[in-house]
Amino acid sequence: MGGASARWKGPRGDRMRGSARLLGAAALMAAVAGFSDGRSRPALDVLIKGGTVYDGTLGEPFVADIGIKGDRIAAIGNLAGETAAEVIDAKGLVVAPGFIDVHNHSDMPFRLAGWLRLFAYIDPAWKGNHNYIFQGVTTIVTQNCGWGYPDINDWFGIVNSIRFGTNVYGLVPHGDIRTALFGPENPQPLSPAQLELMKERVAQEMRKGAIGMSVGLEYAPGCMATTDELVELAKVVKKCGGIYATHIRDNTGTLLEDKQFGVIKALKEAIEIGKRAAIPVHVSHLQINAPWNGLMAKDLLNLIEAARKEGVDITADAYAYNAGCTLITLLTPFKYRTSAGIRDEYKTPQGKAELKKAVEETFRYLGPDKVMINLFPERKSYEGKTLREIADAEKRDPADLYVDIVTNSKKAPMCFYFDQKEEIVEAIHPHPYVFTASDGWVVPKGSGVPHPRCYGNYPRKIREYVMNKKLMTLKDAIRSMTSLPAEKFRMNLRGKLAPGFYADITVFDPGAIRDKATYQDPTQYSEGIVDLMVNGVLAIKDGKATSRRGGRALRSM
Hints:
Largest sheet: 9 strands, mixed
CATH class of the domain at 99-183 and 211-229 and 243-322 and 420-490: Alpha Beta
Mean pLDDT: 92
Oligomer: single chain
Helix content: 25-40%
CATH architecture of the domain at 99-183 and 211-229 and 243-322 and 420-490: Alpha-Beta Barrel
Shape: globular
Structural class: alpha/beta
Radius of gyration: 24 Å
CATH superfamily of the domain at 99-183 and 211-229 and 243-322 and 420-490: Metal-dependent hydrolases
Low-confidence stretches: 1-39
Number of strands: 22
């Protein structure tokens, strides 16, 4: 993959800055400590030679060697003459910290697959998380949008038992804990006693090593939570040193009865929670969904920037596509939904009629040709087709088709929603408080029709936003994927290339890096990642997976 194009010529000469970047004699002595004969054995495990180093910070790139010993970076600088068990020639290539995906759902396939998740133990692509390592990703944050394992130890046990291919952090999943405690049609609002139960469960999960709490306020049961409930839970998370990660209550430009736009009001709520709980806030997949009603990216960004000036630690993430992916039930208002589908009272003839009217309202601005089913095990023949295509083939009204699907399925299907404007998506990414994230999940080939962001998000951002459209510099794009998310999510000694940091390293060819996944053919690996290390373990060598895995389940410190 890496040799397909001419080597890129990065900064050279005085940017070596060897004296500033080399850890020095003390580090190399430490690297060989424990050897009885340092001359007879390599001082380093891996030596990356002559790459153009983007260290994840605002510093300018420079050409240098990087020495790795065990799971750490031992030295950076001119390491001529040093020996290593493995030498990587990175001349003409970019060497960067491994990319970090702070909004990932790779826990979801394990939870939904039932006994089929046993294949993760034997499928190299699944246990190796190949669709992410081929994007340059070495660390993911899971249990987002309020979904996840109510007991984080269950999830981390799986990660460690299969020796997963990437590092994994986890959040406390507000919605699934609420469901576990109170059932699928749980109450709104919680009683004082119920709130105390929730607070104790959240505290338990934080003590087990979760790095914060996630909420999914567009989904049941998250949509039933009051602002006061979320503030009280966020205070618990704050005491444990965590963050509040929110899929806000409304991502659309819908004009509400109080004359506010849905997404603006929802973002204001997130800021309010941050202020009242004095907690760092992170907004998941910042976007504006149809109807837009004249809203633009600046309307969201101005709110965030004003809050930051007031002292609120608020950041966001975004993916590099103009279509989202979520449950089909999002096409109808909150009151109809459960965590798995539609409430039982709307499965009666009268309820179905009301449900049909509701989805017809949505179809006025988001037509059935803009909604494509991508995951529906109960009706596999629907996967990869829009609601319009299915309705036409079956000679049915699209609204009737929708009602049939949501009221006669055990689990609502996942869909692509082509409901975002490209100019809004592009305007969100270049800002220093917006991190890169995929909102995707581990997907072995042949196991469904995933969103192409699961295979292509990070290379796509570099190719399209940096190389082609020049919306941002490569330095800033890499920073949005590495040090910025690492600092916000308290990832100790990760996200930068520096001596003593963990050796999560991506080596890529900037002339060749690109996404190949499409909505029609989404399981195509990205190109351009030449070498990749996770905790010092070489998972990709010369553009090919090695079958070695260095990922770890990581807990907050």
